[in-house]
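Q: Please design a sequence for this.
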């Protein structure tokens, strides 16, 4: 076990250190962590909609009502999380560059949202 640990420390630790110090990767990490709560909400909605034997507990009408209520949540939360990530990338990139956040963040966020929807649309 000590041989394996020393091998990991010798070979992978320098690579992990370089990756951790990368500005772009830390910006992406922070932006995706901004959208993490919305991802949890969408995932919980999927779990509730797909509970096993739910139709035996509340009937087919109850399952249809739950799917009607929770059906929009997964796609809605992923769409909103996408906006959070796009805005977060612009915000955290300017924060990494140590720019004046208030003056440039709104312009960068609008530009990034516009370019995202022009590219995807």
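A: Design:
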């Amino acid at each position: 076990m000590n041989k394996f640990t020393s091998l990991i420390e010798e070979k992978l630790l320098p690579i992990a250190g370089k990756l951790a110090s990368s500005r772009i990767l830390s910006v992406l990490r922070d932006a995706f962590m901004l959208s993490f709560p919305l991802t949890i909400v969408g995932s919980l909605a999927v779990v509730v909609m797909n509970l096993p034997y739910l139709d035996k507990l509340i009937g087919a009408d109850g399952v249809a009502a739950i799917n009607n209520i929770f059906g929009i949540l997964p796609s809605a939360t992923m769409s909103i999380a996408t906006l959070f990530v796009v805005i977060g990338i612009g915000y955290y990139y300017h924060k990494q560059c140590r720019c004046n956040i208030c003056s440039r963040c709104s312009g960068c966020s609008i530009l990034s949202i516009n370019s995202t929807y022009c590219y995807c649309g």
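Q: Thanks. Anything notable?
A: The two ends are 52 Å apart (CA to CA). The chain has six helices and no strands.
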